[in-house]
């Protein structure tokens, strides 16, 4: 029977995932998208073919799938090696990069410009970013005078007018004579998050406004400039923002995306920060891209956050913001949705792999499936250790994923974890039941908080625009209660179709319900579209109330009467509900709910053929293990992307008669749970059920530890024995500056009692990565929370077991010394190197960072019920 179960299990997984794995193996010219990619800053574009090849080979060996080239400011002393952006020499090294990438299976993307936002020497005053000014009761156009931020040589100049199609077209002509003529081209072009400060106008805005909104904005200057939130002022501001949003979509997103498509490139766009509907802007890109900036401050035991990171100033990541990008991808069937990941997770030289993984898991749970590290500075081998005693060239913003990083030797472990996850995420389709309407006109009815008096929908500070709105509060509750959902815009409602009450998106995703949060203002065209969908069979739920006012100033009273009339018609339809409690209404309409999410688990539900795929991660500190009820029914298995192991999960009949499965997810862990059709009656009816693993009593390892310092900086010939584990920085003054590896040795006996199949070695607090050997045999590397490895019982003896743990720490402690002795390494133009508060970087003032094996180390037998 065991052989039957194993064969069925192997067949089950091969049918689901082998096609995706084979597809990934075929990817060469565009890189492997299942592997993580990285931003690759070309500092001064001072690159050479030999060093490009060397670094790409390092990236490929470490498990990276691609690079995203961003030409950036340069390094002092290397001016004679700077290469002007888009010059013949620059094109030659780019072509070499693409050729070598193809050889190595490493993809290449490229920013359509240098630094950010788009702009440069070909941007004249006529096509530069603009703002409006009130002069004697007339709106006039003025320049913002914003320059490209962090430009590379050859990229300096004014920022282009993103609201003006001819301006964007003229800007792109610079690339028509360069990038479009190259025989070797990158996979995709890229636009960074919208950071055009104070731009709120374009030269033809008044003409466009009158054409789109039906009246002359100059006739309502008093309402446009009013800040008292009068009702008429709100309506004019809605019209103003609606026009800006449309011009940004038409003038930039469609224009740039269309240019890329015509040129044969994919487009990657970070729409966030824009004064427009993010769903529509992301939807224009082939690969929508969100951003994870700072630390989410998960309550995972042992997770460290940088105390110097200023939350009030920079904000924290939030999955509700990430879902704008994934929703656009799901609705339109875009296979990839990416993220700029782990920007400023902690200060330079202080980021650990254990801090990175939960942030990646949060992105996966929000629907992201194409991770880009932020990032890797191009640094010649002659400028970095170990060849020379220097950290090399560094970008001003952490995290450094390059070969000079302290975690580079262990980065393949994180890369492998991400590849295993993304292989499954990219091979499956969204399986969300609810489409939540994003009422952006209600947002535009609130006072704007960005420069230029506009609403810029940034991912950093969702507390300023997203969380306070009924939409944000409702979506938070949906996530906490275990509902799977996407967002939908006014525009994308028009692209939905209905088949037997099922709502179908143009990309093939299906939904059961459209949910409208409590909304005050709505375009009457949107409400009429909802009525059309309802009459075709769509189930629509309004939270608390129906909207009663039309958005916009023109003919407001007449259009509001239409809104009321449409609402009255909607109330008469059986498949329309105005609900006082949507969390009672949704299950009554057949919407699936994963109630176990309320215990603090984050989830993403997807489909692959006849199987339902869950990505489940514990980013909280409430759940450990329990019997849970999945909404999907069938044969249940669990895949651990950390180890690559998979197993059946036990199932029992619950108290309500529905099947339950036993799930164990410690804080910091993540698993894929697959629910597939029953395979064969012989397996279905087998009395041999999967075992529920349980842990016995943990026993601390109490013998002394011998600690030997191995390779590192500065060289440290130190051996010591300690009775109790503590930071090695306390061993001696010189140990407080050591960055590298130390070996911990001890012995232990097995506890009395029945011998299980395996033991779990819980290392407690590890700073930062531990390679573990038992009786001379490697048993695993602990690099993320919880820090533990499994030891097969057959490797152990009743007494005298030898345990060796090699621990590698951060480079922060060595930088305390190096920055004091060699401050000249900070030799970069523009912003140079700053700390996490954007102050001049000074590691010499840091306290020693705890390092080594801090424990306590516990041995736990793993048994079965």
TrEMBL record:
Q: Which keywords, in A-to-Z order, does the entry hold?
A: Hydrolase, Signal
Task: Check the record and name the InterPro entries matching this protein.
Answer: Galactose-bd-like_sf, Ulvan_degrading_GH
What protein name is recorded for this chain? Glycoside hydrolase
Tell me any Pfam family this protein matches: Glyco_hydro_106
- Return the PANTHER family for the record: DNA-BINDING PROTEIN (PUTATIVE SECRETED PROTEIN)-RELATED, SECRETED PROTEIN
Any one GO MF term held by the record is: hydrolase activity
Q: Does the keyword field hold Transmembrane?
A: no
């Amino acid at each position: 029977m065991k052989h039957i179960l194993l064969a069925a299990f192997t067949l089950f997984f091969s049918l689901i995932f082998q096609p995706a794995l084979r597809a990934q193996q075929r990817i060469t010219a565009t890189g492997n998208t299942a592997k993580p990619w990285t931003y690759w800053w070309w500092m001064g574009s001072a690159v050479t073919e030999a060093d490009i090849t060397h670094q790409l080979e390092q990236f490929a060996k470490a498990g990276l799938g691609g690079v995203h080239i961003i030409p950036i400011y340069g390094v002092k002393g290397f001016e004679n090696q700077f290469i002007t952006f888009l010059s013949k020499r620059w094109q030659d090294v780019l072509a070499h990069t693409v050729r070598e990438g193809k050889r190595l299976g490493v993809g290449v993307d490229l920013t359509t410009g240098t630094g950010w936002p788009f702009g440069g020497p070909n941007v004249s005053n006529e096509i530069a970013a603009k703002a409006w000014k009130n002069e004697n009761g007339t709106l006039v156009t003025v320049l913002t005078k914003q320059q490209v931020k962090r430009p590379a040589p050859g990229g300096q100049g004014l920022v282009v007018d993103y609201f003006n199609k001819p301006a964007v077209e003229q800007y792109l002509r610079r690339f028509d004579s360069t990038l479009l003529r190259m025989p070797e081209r990158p996979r995709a072009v890229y636009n960074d998050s919208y950071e055009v400060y104070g731009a709120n106008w374009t030269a033809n805005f008044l003409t466009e406004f009158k054409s789109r909104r039906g009246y002359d904005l100059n006739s309502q200057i008093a309402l446009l400039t009013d800040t008292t939130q009068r009702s008429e002022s709100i309506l004019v501001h809605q019209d103003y923002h609606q026009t800006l949003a449309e011009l940004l979509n038409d003038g930039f997103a469609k224009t740039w995306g269309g240019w890329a498509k015509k040129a044969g490139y994919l487009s990657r766009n970070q729409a966030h920060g824009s004064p427009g509907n993010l769903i529509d802007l992301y939807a224009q890109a082939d690969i929508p891209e969100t951003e994870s900036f700072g630390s989410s401050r998960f309550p995972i035991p042992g997770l460290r956050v940088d105390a110097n990171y200023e939350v009030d100033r920079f904000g924290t990541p939030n999955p509700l913001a990430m879902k704008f990008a994934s929703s656009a991808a799901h609705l339109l069937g875009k296979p990839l949705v990416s993220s700029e990941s782990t920007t400023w997770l902690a200060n330079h030289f202080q980021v650990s792999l254990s801090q990175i993984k939960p942030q990646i898991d949060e992105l996966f749970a929000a629907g992201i499936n194409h991770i880009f590290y932020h990032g890797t500075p191009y640094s010649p081998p002659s400028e970095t250790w170990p060849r020379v005693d220097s950290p090399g060239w560094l970008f001003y913003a952490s995290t450094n994923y390059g070969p000079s990083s302290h975690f580079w030797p262990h980065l393949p472990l994180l890369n492998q974890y991400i590849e295993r996850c993304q292989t499954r995420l990219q091979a499956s389709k969204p399986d969300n039941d609810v489409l939540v309407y994003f009422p952006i006109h209600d947002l535009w009815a609130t006072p704007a908080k960005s420069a230029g008096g506009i609403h810029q929908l940034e991912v950093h500070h969702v507390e300023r625009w997203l969380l306070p709105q009924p939409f944000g509060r409702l979506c938070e509750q949906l996530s906490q209660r275990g509902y799977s959902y996407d967002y939908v815009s006014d525009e994308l409602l028009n692209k939905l179709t209905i088949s037997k009450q099922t709502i179908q998106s143009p990309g093939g995703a299906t939904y059961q319900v459209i949910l409208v949060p409590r909304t005050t203002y709505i375009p009457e065209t949107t409400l009429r579209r909802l009525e059309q969908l309802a009459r075709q069979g769509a189930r629509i739920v309004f939270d608390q109330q129906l909207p009663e006012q039309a958005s916009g100033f023109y003919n407001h009273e007449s259009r509001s009467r239409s809104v009321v009339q449409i609402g009255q018609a909607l109330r008469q339809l059986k498949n329309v509900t105005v609900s006082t409690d949507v969390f009672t209404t949704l299950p009554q309409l057949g919407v699936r709910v994963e109630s176990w999410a309320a215990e603090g688990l984050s989830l993403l539900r997807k489909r692959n053929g006849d199987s339902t795929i869950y990505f489940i991660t514990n980013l909280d500190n409430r759940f450990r293990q329990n019997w849970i009820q999945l909404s999907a029914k069938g044969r249940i298995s669990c895949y651990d992307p950390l180890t690559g192991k998979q197993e059946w999960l036990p199932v029992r009949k619950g108290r309500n008669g529905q099947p339950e499965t036993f799930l164990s997810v410690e804080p910091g862990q993540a698993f894929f749970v697959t629910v597939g059709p029953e395979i064969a009656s012989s397996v279905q009816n087998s009395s041999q059920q999967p075992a529920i693993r349980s842990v016995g009593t943990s026993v601390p390892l109490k013998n002394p530890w011998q600690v030997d310092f191995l390779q590192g900086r500065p060289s440290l010939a130190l051996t010591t024995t300690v009775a109790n584990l503590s930071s090695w920085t306390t061993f001696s003054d010189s140990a407080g500056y050591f960055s590298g590896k130390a070996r911990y040795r001890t012995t232990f006996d097995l506890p009395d009692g029945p011998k299980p199949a395996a033991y779990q070695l819980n290392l407690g607090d590890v700073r930062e990565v531990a390679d573990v050997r038992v009786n001379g045999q490697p048993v695993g590397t602990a690099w993320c929370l919880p820090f533990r490895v499994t030891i097969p019982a057959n490797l152990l003896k009743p007494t005298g077991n030898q345990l060796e743990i090699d621990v590698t720490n951060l480079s922060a402690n060595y930088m305390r010394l190096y920055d004091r002795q060699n401050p000249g390494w900070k030799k970069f133009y523009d912003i140079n190197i700053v700390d996490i508060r954007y102050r001049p970087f000074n590691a010499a003032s840091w306290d020693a960072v705890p390092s080594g094996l801090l424990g306590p180390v516990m041995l736990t037998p793993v048994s079965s019920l």
